[in-house]
Design brief:
The structure is a homotetramer of 150-residue chains. Chain A has a six-stranded antiparallel sheet with strand order 1-2-4-5-6-3, covered by helices on one side. In chain A, strand 5 and strand 6 form a beta hairpin. Chain A is 22% helix and 41% strand. In chain A, 55% of the residues are buried. Chain A has a single domain, classed as Hotdog Thioesterase (Thiol Ester Dehydrase, Chain A, Roll), CATH 3.10.129.10. Chain A is globular. Chain A is built from three helices and six strands; from the N terminus they run ααββαββββ. Chains in contact: A-B, A-C, A-D, B-C, B-D, C-D. Chains A and B meet through helix 2, helix 3 and strand 3 of A and helix 2, helix 3 and strand 3 of B.
Chain lengths: 150, 150, 150, 150
């Protein structure tokens, strides 16, 4: 789906917000591919991000799914708005066993208050990409707030 | 609801699995209050776990919700089984703004293959506890596998 | 949880809205037990509401879960507001095999714009009640609209 | 995604199961477009299926979403298997205001035990189709059962 952003500065706005998320730095997540209504996040494998079988932890998969969805929706919001996750649902369909985790989210519906996004999360193992999780997420736009305010 | 565990060694089994999750060590999550069909996890505030407003990141809230649900269900499983998260849904109802995050999960239904749990996540600020998120989670029991195998 | 309704006429408001839902009449659903932040709906067994094994259809279970949640949230809204379902998630934990289906929903969080409810759906067979489904639902309040307007 | 069905008789198997669902007859739902891993269901507008604003009831939207997902997954299952809905999550993104409701579901992951599907639900008004809801659904295959057994 093709979207026209209200704020032409949406790439910078998403990058700034992402950079303020200390948790993204802790896990070394990388923001990629920001388009109107779309966001992609990459995360290289690190043992410290794993569960009991040394695969990426489901919480990490959820983190990427939710964050990619949030920033996909944020690209379409007004310059003076901030965003909050309302809820999301995540299906884990294959073990997150590989060297790189990729979340790709797109906006399904951009409403005046609420947006709905889908995130697909892929695991790359030996260079081959495979779907490992799928999410559906609801976000809310808070007008006249400031995403950078504490 | 009162449950009778099949494996009397369920506390140790949960503790061992939790200890093998490197991600729990990275974020310094603490396993608390393991009962049959119940699990509680605590997580003290750390700036590195935050989003752009310096509150706990939604991914961290999701991590705790999913993990508490998984271990609540794991208490009721057979000694030789391992567990996987099938899916979960999380509503974020208040900002996770406080000094301590607590996830409390209980089993709603323990089936032969699938279990369903609810997790409530509370934020403690200046000593006062408040609901900040609520999740509903589906887990699957994998018989004759070994949770400690890589 | 105890809630104080803003509109003391909440019982009548819920009854009127429910009565305007033609689908509730088609399936012969009965509104019961309206309290602030709470709603209960009963549905007697009818063959025409079943799936391929002659149990209540999952769509019927979902209908009751969503509707009970919506009216639980509606009890706490302003007199001039209408309500819409934003989303819901339903786990089907046991076959809906019995003579009566009961949905009981309560408000978990009543926010200024969004409310979150949980619905438990029970099946009564030979007089014994059993949990058959569990839902978590998000609702939105539309201020200064009119629930009775077409 | 292209799938190869295990049972070449999958169209007939889906049609037979659908025909045994009395609730589909009550609401006059029509099964369309069965392909491997895909199912489409149509439902013409009827006042008796509406909520308080005379739009299709959310429960009807959910019914179609869940049923299309179930039959999409069922196309890929073994001839001797039956299917149950484990859970689903539905976002209602626009009012279901129109003359025809269409659910289109496809399998995202067909696993040995569990399948995950996405359903998109469209409302057609004056001949124009619009997304009105989106669902993500988990189904379970019950081997060596018989879908037609009571």
């Amino acid at each position: 789906m093709l979207y026209t952003p209200q704020d032409l500065n949406y790439v910078r706005r998403v990058q700034d917000s992402f950079a303020r998320q200390a948790f993204m730095q802790l896990i070394q997540a990388e923001l990629r591919g920001i388009e109107p209504g779309y966001c992609e996040i990459h995360l290289p494998y690190q043992v410290q991000l794993t569960q009991q079988h040394q695969f990426f932890h489901a919480g990490i998969v959820a983190t990427l799914a939710d964050n990619a969805a949030g920033y996909a929706a944020f690209t379409l919001m007004a310059a003076q708005s901030s965003i909050l996750s309302v809820e999301f649902k995540l299906n884990l369909v294959s073990p997150a066993d590989g060297e790189l985790l990729i979340a790709r989210a797109e906006v399904l519906k951009h409403g005046k208050t609420l947006s709905v996004c889908r995130s697909d999360i892929f695991i790359v193992k030996n260079g081959t990409e495979k779907l490992c999780a799928a999410a559906q997420c609801t976000l809310i736009e808070l007008p006249n707030t400031n995403d950078s305010a504490g």
